[in-house]
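JOB MANIFEST
job_type = single_chain_structure
chain_count = 1
residues = 131
[input]
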Amino acid sequence: MGFVALEVKELVDILLKNVDMPEIITKVEVNKNEVVVGVKPAAFLPQMSLKFTITSMQNKLSILFDPSKNLIVYGFLLGKLKDEKIEGLQLFKDRLEIDLQKILAGNVKGVKVNRVEVDSGGKIEIDFCCG
């Protein structure tokens, strides 16, 4: 049995250090379980902020899109992910779901995710076992 606890901010910092961010992203701010991403989509368009809320549902991480801009985010991600078949990622019009069990199954054999929980304070807890 294993247990991992981290903050949403720590997870975002890990992603920012290990993923090449597109030039359109101008800033990333984290406040508890909310992430605000500043984007400048084109020279002739104004900068805008996109807000995401990180939650958990049914042992999956769920990234909820700002309801007022969810079609913008959905369209952008659909364009980026349509040719990619990433086991464990599922895109909906209002959110992106990440199934850690499916992602791990492709890379680490014998690990079972028992619980994924994100609270409103930004704490992520993951219980897992081997076997």
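[summary]
The mean pLDDT is 90.
The first strand starts at residue 2 and ends at 7.
exit_status = 0
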